Amino acid sequence: MDADTRSLVRQRAARRCEYCRLPDSALDLPFHVEHIIATVHRADDSLPNLAWACPRCNLHKGSNLSTIDSESNQPVELFNPRTMTWSDHFEILAGVIAGITPCGRGTVRLLDMNSEHRLSHRRQLIDQGEFDLG
Q1: Dihedral through CA 71, CA 77, CA 79, CA 83, nearest 10?
Q2: Percentage helix, strand, coil, to 5, in the chain?
Q3: Does any domain span residue 88?
Q4: What three-state secondary structure class fits 48?
Q5: Does a structural domain hold residue 132?
Q6: What is the pLDDT of residues 45-94, one digit of tens each?
Q7: Residue 43 to residue 27: CA distance in whole angstroms
Q8: ∠31-6-28 over CA atoms, to 5°?
Q9: Which residues pair with 91 in a beta bridge?
Q10: Which of 43, 52, 54, 89 could hold 104 in an S-S bridge, CB 3.0 to 4.6 Å?
């Protein structure tokens, strides 16, 4: 991905993961320009198909387009940061990212957003005022 595209995607995302909302300043590892619909499904490097993602969310997401809702056990599409609003699908309660829709629940589970390490790190950032809850 060229530097200009990377910079545009990063700025559009307000420098935080578009899935778990982790600020990119909170990791020593570089964030990824992630293909929402993976190139294995469709070769599309256009801005509407790109998201800013922390390495963990991107690696857990892989080429998946869907997952299973943890409540209904039914297939659901993954959260798409270009066509969906984060707060319509997720909320943060005591540092835990909770899915409030089938899509949100499935995305939280597939991306393992509340693993012990991620939750501890998120709570620390919240306590330090470095994690945007809004």
Answers
A1: -140
A2: 35, 20, 45
A3: yes
A4: helix
A5: no
A6: 999 999 999 999 999 999 999 999 999 999 999 999 999 999 999 999 99
A7: 29
A8: 25
A9: 98
A10: 89
In a domain, 29, yes or no: yes
Select from 64, 9, 83 the least CA-distant residue to 17.
9
- Phi, psi values for residue 44, rounded to 5°: -150, 100
Tally the domains of the chain: 1
Structure tokens at 87: 């707060």
Locus of tokens 């899915």: 99
Structural domain for 52, as ranges: 3-127
Has this prediction a pTM greater than 0.85? yes
**Tokens linked to 59:** 């690696």
Q: What is the dihedral of CA 3, 78, 37, 55, to 10 degrees?
A: 40
Q: Name 53's bridge partners.
A: 32
